[in-house]
Amino acid sequence: MSAIRRLFLEVLGWLFVVLGIAALVLPGPGLLLLVIGLALLAREYEWARRRLEPLRLRAMRGAAEGVETWPRLLMSAGAALCLVAAGVLWIVSPAAPGWWPLTDRLWLAGGWETGATLEISAAIALALLVVSYRRFHDNPAARAEFESELVEADRHDEDDSPRRRPRAR
């Protein structure tokens, strides 16, 4: 692999990791971005390879739990639709209402760019919800399959943990 390509993939991987960490607390698909970032970094780094599969399996668990019951499914869809509404609000950017206590400049800070990222996040969330629904809703076999993979990955991770290895004397 050329040095330029390697550098590009490494920078892109770290970018996805940073965006994924941010999206864990901001609106967005944080685990998905982290998995993508680690997948890119795993091409070069052993530490990323070790962390990729457990993270992917935990993301799958979250996807399965989000569509496990109708109330969860409706709440997940409602949250995504709230992102759509917020994105539209930021894009339209109406004047600050009279009850807004701060300066008008701080009303919907970020402008249309913030609205666009909210819309992108909502589109990704809705797409993931559809994929999760198709794969996991009323499909206990699919859920059991990745749960056993998760148990095995956790067991493997514990076996490789330096805390579990006996110290050399």
Low-pLDDT segments, ≥5 res: none
The arrangement of helices and strands along the chain is HHHHHH
Q: Please state the average pLDDT score.
A: 84
Could you give the distance between the termini? 41 Å
Helix content: over 70%
- Main sheet characteristics: none
Strand share of the residues? under 5%
Morphology:
flat
Total number of helices: 6
**SS-based class:** mainly alpha
Rg, Cα atoms, Å: 20 Å
Note down, in words, how this protein is organized.
- By secondary structure, the protein is an all-alpha fold.
- The chain contains 6 helices and no strands.
- Helix 3 crosses helix 5, helix 3 runs antiparallel to helix 6 and helix 4 packs antiparallel against helix 5.
- The longest helix has 26 residues.
- It is flat.
- The mean pLDDT is 84.
Question: Top keywords for this entry?
Answer:
mainly alpha, 169 residues
Compose a concise summary of this entry.
The protein has helices at 3-25, 30-41, 46-66, 70-92, 111-136, 140-160. It is mainly α.
Task: Please outline the helices and strands.
Blueprint: H1 3-25, H2 30-41, H3 46-66, H4 70-92, H5 111-136, H6 140-160
Helix pairs in contact: 1-2, 2-3, 3-5, 3-6, 4-5
